[in-house]
């Protein structure tokens, strides 16, 4: 999402062998893809942090490409921890059990790293980073990804991703220090999330920060308004160029021309015919669906209606039965109608209605 | 008959956080075409139910334990039906309940609103009204409280461009009937329950936190009038420029797409399935009516016979035989539940509304296209 920064990747030499045993052996560049739901979850967690805590941390879950150089962060969860000037305490048991729970629901999402809600990297970060990249429970042999999302009020939310390399002269020093190497990341969303994101973004400019879900028609209306606005802008630009108020651009002209040439050339009669056919098809299907709805409603009502024919309950019961049979027969006729009209009106639907009609007759 | 109708919940609308929307979309599209189910947590504030987080239920999959390679053949229709039933029943499965409790316990530790407020399910083209759905929601409304809702996310319709997310709850009158567990003609007549009254739809709104709002504002948006972009030198530069190429939160123009046939076709297909289900229910009801009538004829014959016999015995000064012995001799058939028929009715209504919606949208678009291609006639 526009966070395309440039990075220079240098393969670092591995640290001396004894230290490397507890460390990640991969220092190859890693590229990280963030999915919006993970990011939203981090932001949610940041806004729910205890008042006295500067930052909160959590575990990142996601998938990794086979060679381990590409990581996609798809989910995350919060882990409680306390941090003072001298020490950091992390609920490792909690982290482990939570990971188990998540793995049960989504076995494909594995541990890939951790996040913190401040962009500061300190000794504790190194400690936690080493915990996450250790052997066994950590991400070893792959590097653990560290994602920092700064959530300082009044400043931009800034996301950074790092992997680490071991550093330190002795084994003891190496345990609580590491070198964070920034790696590129991008925020990606898939097609399916688009409509959701659009709606979420719609709430952004509103005072109450909320947005009612809209019906299809309202969404359409808004989309058309937006298209009209864009067209307006383009035509303003073009007329400004004609009036020599704006500098012309060959590239833009070419682009517009290419776009305009996409308009299909069809003759008016064909359009008229296809248009009528299609609209009739749609209206017919809509009409028939409503007819079916009415019939089923009727049949349900007749089945449960208290029909009194002046006789005892026995008579009433059989009366209801007869009525219902009539209802069924009527519906059969309707369905027959649907099949005929469906066959005549449109080719693609006739195959559909055919089997349905036959099924009904059995 | 002494059951007190459950108190109606004060919740009138549902508020979703952006996080829940995104999690739901991800989970639902990830497992499509299987239905995805999961739990919603949040809290109810006055008339508003705020849903702030969600997590998926683990798929209960007994096939893996048997280790039979044949049973996990995805092409097998029986296997799929089995899977479907399993996935739909997940919210009220025992394992899910314990999973949910455990998860909520952990979430509470990190300050998440730890109160189960409902569950979600994904569907395709509105095919969610079935016995399983009703059972799940009834289970939740009884176990967790009257305020719980079921969120239904329609994967199929959301691919059309606009997000389709609905919140439903079972009506108090239906809950009362469900508690009795009786859906006979008589009980329905008495409670005058109609299929339109089964589900109550609640309006859904999306709500962002302050932090998220500021983040969204920071992401690149459509260029404002006062930004001065340098004019591109060539076509390729125009295509390459990342600031022009991708605009993440730009309006989604997918819903201007004209192709509606696949959606209509699918819905009509499902509609036909519903009709078939209705037919089955009707046959069951008719079968019941017929066998009831047969039994009643038999009983009447027996009663007549017993009466004549008694008249004879009275004449012969013998004690008459009891006349209500037929209750022991004959067994009246049990009336089938009308619940399924009602649900089919509700489902058909859903489809019909959906098709209406398609029709409204597509005819608008069609007239637009026609006006564009035939400018002479439009003016």
Describe the structure.
The complex is a heterodimer of chains A (362) and B (379). In chain A, the strands form 2 sheets. An 8-stranded mixed beta sheet of chain A has the order 9-8-7-6-2-3-1-10. A two-stranded antiparallel sheet of chain A has the order 4-5. Among the domains of chain A are: 162 residues, Cytidine Deaminase, domain 2 (3-Layer(aba) Sandwich); 44 residues. Chain A contains 11 helices and 11 strands. Chain B is an alpha/beta fold. Chain B has 2 domains: 198 residues, Cytidine Deaminase, domain 2, CATH 3.40.140; 112 residues. Chain B contains 15 helices and 8 strands. Chain B is elongated. The N terminus of chain B is likely disordered. At the A-B interface, helix 2, strand 3, helix 3, helix 6 and strand 11 of A face helix 1, strand 3, helix 4, helix 6 and helix 8 of B.
Question: What does the secondary structure layout of this molecule look like, with pairings?
Answer:
The complex is a heterodimer of chains A (362) and B (379).
Chain A: H1 17-20, E1 31-34, H2 36-47, E2 57-64, E3 70-79, E4 81-83, E5 88-90, H3 92-105, E6 110-116, H4 123-132, E7 145-150, E8 158-166, H5 171-175, E9 178-183, E10 185-187, H6 191-202, E11 210-212, H7 216-242, H8 250-260, H9 268-304, H10 313-345, H11 347-361
Parallel strand pairs in A: 1-3, 1-10, 6-7
Antiparallel strand pairs in A: 2-3, 2-6, 4-5, 7-8, 8-9
Chain B: E1 13-17, H1 18-31, E2 37-45, E3 48-56, H2 63-66, H3 77-89, H4 94-109, E4 116-123, H5 131-143, E5 149-154, H6 155-158, E6 165-170, H7 172-180, H8 185-191, E7 199-202, E8 204-207, H9 210-218, H10 235-240, H11 242-245, H12 261-315, H13 326-329, H14 339-373, H15 375-378
Parallel strand pairs in B: 1-3, 1-8, 4-5
Antiparallel strand pairs in B: 2-3, 2-4, 5-6, 6-7
Helix pairs in contact in B: 12-14
């Amino acid at each position: 999402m526009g966070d395309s920064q440039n990075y220079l990747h240098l393969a670092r030499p591995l640290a001396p062998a004894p230290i490397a045993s507890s460390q990640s052996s991969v220092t190859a560049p890693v590229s990280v893809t963030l999915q919006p739901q993970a990011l939203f979850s981090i932001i949610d967690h940041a806004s729910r942090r205890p008042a006295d805590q500067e930052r909160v941390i959590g575990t990142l879950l996601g998938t990794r490409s086979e060679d381990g150089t590409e990581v996609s962060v798809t989910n995350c969860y919060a882990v409680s921890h306390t941090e003072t000037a001298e020490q950091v305490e992390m609920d490792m048991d909690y982290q482990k059990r939570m990971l188990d729970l998540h793995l049960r629901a989504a076995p494909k999402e594995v541990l890939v790293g951790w996040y913190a809600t401040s962009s500061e990297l300190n000794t504790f970060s190194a400690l936690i980073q080493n915990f996450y990249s250790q052997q066994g429970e950590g991400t070893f042999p792959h590097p653990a990804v560290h994602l920092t999302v700064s959530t300082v009020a009044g400043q931009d939310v800034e996301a950074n991703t790092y992997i680490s390399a071991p550093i330190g002269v002795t084994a003891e020093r190496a345990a609580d220090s590491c070198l964070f190497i920034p790696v590129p990341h991008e925020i990606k969303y898939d097609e399916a999330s688009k409509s959701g994101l659009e709606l979420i973004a719609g709430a952004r400019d509103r005072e109450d920060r909320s947005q009612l879900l809209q019906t299809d028609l309202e969404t359409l209306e808004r989309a058309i308004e937006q298209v009209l606005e864009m067209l307006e802008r383009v035509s303003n630009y073009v007329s400004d160029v004609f009036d020599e108020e704006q500098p012309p651009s060959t590239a833009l002209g070419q682009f517009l021309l290419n776009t305009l040439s996409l308009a299909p050339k069809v003759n008016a009669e064909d359009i008229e015919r296809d248009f009528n056919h299609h609209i009739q098809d749609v209206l017919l299907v809509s009409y028939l669906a409503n007819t079916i709805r009415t019939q089923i409603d009727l049949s349900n009502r007749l089945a449960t209606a208290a029909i009194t024919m002046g006789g005892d309950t026995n008579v009433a019961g059989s009366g209801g039965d007869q009525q219902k049979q009539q209802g069924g027969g009527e519906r059969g006729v309707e369905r027959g109608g649907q099949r005929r009209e469906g066959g005549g009106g449109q080719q693609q639907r006739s195959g559909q209605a055919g089997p349905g009609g036959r099924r009904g007759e059995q | 008959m002494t059951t007190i109708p459950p108190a109606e919940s004060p919740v009138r609308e549902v508020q979703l956080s952006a996080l829940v929307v995104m999690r739901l979309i991800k989970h639902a599209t990830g497992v499509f075409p299987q239905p995805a189910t999961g739990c919603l947590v949040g809290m109810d504030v006055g008339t508003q139910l705020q849903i702030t987080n969600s997590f998926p239920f683990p798929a209960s999959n007994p096939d893996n334990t048997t280790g039979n390679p044949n049973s996990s053949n995805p092409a097998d229709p029986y296997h799929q039906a089995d899977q479907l039933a399993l996935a739909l029943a997940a919210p009220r499965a025992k394992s899910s309940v314990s999973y949910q409790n455990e998860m909520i316990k952990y979430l509470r530790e990190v300050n998440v609103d730890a109160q189960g407020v409902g569950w979600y399910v994904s569907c395709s083209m509105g095919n969610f009204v079935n016995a399983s759905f009703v059972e799940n929601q009834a289970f939740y409304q009884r176990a967790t409280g009257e305020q719980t809702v079921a969120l239904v996310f329609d994967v199929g319709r959301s691919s059309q461009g606009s997000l389709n997310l609905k919140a439903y709850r079972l009506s108090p009158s239906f809950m009362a009937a469900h508690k009795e567990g009786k859906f006979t003609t008589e009980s329905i007549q008495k409670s005058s329950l109609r299929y339109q009254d089964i589900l109550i739809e609640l309006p859904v709104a999306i709500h962002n936190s302050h932090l998220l709002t500021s983040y969204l504002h920071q992401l690149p948006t459509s260029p404002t009038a006062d930004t001065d972009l340098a004019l591109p030198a060539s076509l390729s530069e125009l295509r390459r420029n990342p600031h022009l190429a991708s605009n993440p939160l730009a309006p989604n123009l997918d819903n201007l797409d004209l192709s509606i046939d696949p959606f209509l076709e699918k819905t009509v297909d499902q509609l036909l399935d519903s009709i078939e289900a209705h037919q089955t229910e009707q046959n069951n009801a008719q079968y019941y009516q017929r066998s009831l009538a047969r039994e009643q004829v038999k009983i009447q014959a027996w009663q007549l016979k017993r009466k004549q016999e008694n008249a004879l015995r009275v004449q012969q000064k013998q004690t008459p035989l009891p006349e209500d012995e037929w209750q022991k001799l004959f067994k009246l058939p049990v009336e089938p539940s009308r619940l399924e028929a009602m649900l089919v009715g509700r489902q058909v209504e859903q489809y019909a509304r959906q098709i209406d919606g398609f029709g409204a949208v597509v005819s608008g678009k069609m007239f637009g296209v026609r006006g564009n291609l035939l400018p002479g006639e439009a003016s």
